[in-house]
Specification:
The protein contains five helices and two strands; from the N terminus they run H-H-H-E-E-H-H. By secondary structure, it is an alpha+beta fold. Strands 1-2 form a two-stranded antiparallel ribbon. A hairpin with a 5-residue loop joins strand 1 and strand 2. The longest helix is centred in the first third of the chain and has 18 residues. The N and C termini lie far apart (66 Å).
Amino acid sequence: MTKPLLALFISTILLTSCSTTKTQFGETVIENTADTSLSKQAILKIKSLDNDIFDSATFVGKEQIEIKYRLFKPNQLKTKEKYPLVVIYHSSGRPVGTDNKSQLGILQKLFASPDIQNKYPAYV
């Protein structure tokens, strides 16, 4: 009689511990709300950032192939402080173009936005 009770006790503990794994690993469930106007406003705010906050430059390698790129530098650089570099590949987030302007999509601008840069300064 004690073996079945022990088995029931162990299986209950295992089932209980497995049901809370989402919390243990840091997953967060976001409830789906019907009002998406705040999200749309945040996206429009990010998209409205001016492309000129990114420096425009060109790299030419040994084979004389020209590669255009953009670089955002953090506003408040501190001497002897190291900052991460966020690399975003062409067409990440779906912006497409060849003029070195239209490629700057929401992903690049998100990392360069003042809200993110104040918390996590980085080169983008």
